[in-house]
């Protein structure tokens, strides 16, 4: 068995995170959950705590809103599974922080490229079993109406670009709709 990158996308509340967690939980051993959400209000704090409790003792949670590529690189060889949830929140965090900077496009491109590079390198796993899996969750935001403002259109465009790059790198890609996962890519190993 070898390492895999599994990319899971779908609309908001489609069941993609639950599917990713259920699939990743089937793998024996310690697991890392990288959460990109930030607890900026009381509702989000409660949501994050509820999700942490629901994962169980096999999961170590890391909260990182921006530097997920660095974190994957740091923790990746210590776990059987690393699950990143979710890329669209991560992208939103980057866009927000880079909103008024001169090199905004370069900052976004650099972050995406670092994530792609680390994902490609993830297949090198130093655990004794010789395999680890990277699960990556992201929202599919391009199937709705064209947003009415520049920032929302920019976010949609970057999210589409990011999802394409991760899907290209991934060994398996799933689209989840109404709680039903559909495998849309499988690379034969």
Question: What does the model show?
Answer:
By secondary structure, this protein is α/β, with parallel strands linked by helices. It is globular and about 45 Å long. It has a single domain, classed as 3-Layer(aba) Sandwich (Rossmann fold), CATH 3.40.50.300. The chain has helices spanning 16-25, 42-55, 68-75, 87-97, 104-121, 150-169, and strands at 4-10, 31-35, 59-63, 81-85, 133-139, 172-177, 180-186. The protein has a seven-stranded mixed β-sheet with strand order 3-2-4-5-1-6-7, sandwiched between helices. Helix 5 (104-121) runs parallel beside helix 6. It is built from six helices and seven strands.
Question: What tags apply to this protein structure?
Answer:
Rossmann fold; 189 residues
- CATH H-level superfamily title: P-loop containing nucleotide triphosphate hydrolases
Radius of gyration: 16 Å
Order of helices and strands: EHEHEHEHHEHEE
- What structural class is derived from the secondary structure elements? alpha/beta
Give the overall form: globular
CATH topology: Rossmann fold
Instruction: State the total count of DSSP E strands.
Output: 7
List the helices and strands and how they pair.
Blueprint: E1 4-10, H1 16-25, E2 31-35, H2 42-55, E3 59-63, H3 68-75, E4 81-85, H4 87-97, H5 104-121, E5 133-139, H6 150-169, E6 172-177, E7 180-186
Parallel strand pairs: 1-5, 1-6, 2-3, 2-4, 4-5
Antiparallel strand pairs: 6-7
Summarize the structure.
The protein has 189 residues and is an alpha/beta fold. The chain has helices at residues 16-25, 42-55, 68-75, 87-97, 104-121, 150-169, and strands spanning 4-10, 31-35, 59-63, 81-85, 133-139, 172-177, 180-186. The chain contains 6 helices and 7 strands; from the N terminus they run E-H-E-H-E-H-E-H-H-E-H-E-E.
């Amino acid at each position: 068995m070898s390492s895999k990158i599994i990319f899971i996308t779908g609309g908001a509340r489609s069941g993609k995170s639950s599917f990713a967690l259920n699939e990743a939980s089937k793998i024996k051993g310690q697991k890392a959950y990288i959460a990109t959400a930030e607890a900026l209000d009381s509702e989000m704090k409660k949501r994050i705590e509820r999700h942490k409790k629901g994962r169980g003792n096999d999961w170590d949670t890391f909260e990182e809103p921006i530097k997920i590529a660095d974190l994957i690189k740091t923790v990746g060889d210590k776990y059987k599974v690393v699950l990143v949830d979710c890329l669209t929140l991560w992208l939103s965090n980057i866009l927000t922080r880079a909103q008024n900077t001169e090199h905004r496009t370069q900052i976004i491109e650099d972050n995406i490229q670092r994530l792609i590079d680390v994902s490609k390198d993830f297949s090198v796993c130093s655990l004794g079993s010789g395999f680890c899996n990277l699960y990556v969750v992201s929202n599919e935001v391009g199937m709705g109406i064209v947003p009415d403002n520049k920032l929302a259109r920019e976010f949609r465009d970057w999210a589409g670009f990011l999802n394409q790059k991760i899907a290209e790198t991934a060994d398996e890609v799933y689209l989840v709709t109404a709680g039903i996962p559909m495998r849309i890519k499988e690379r034969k190993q």
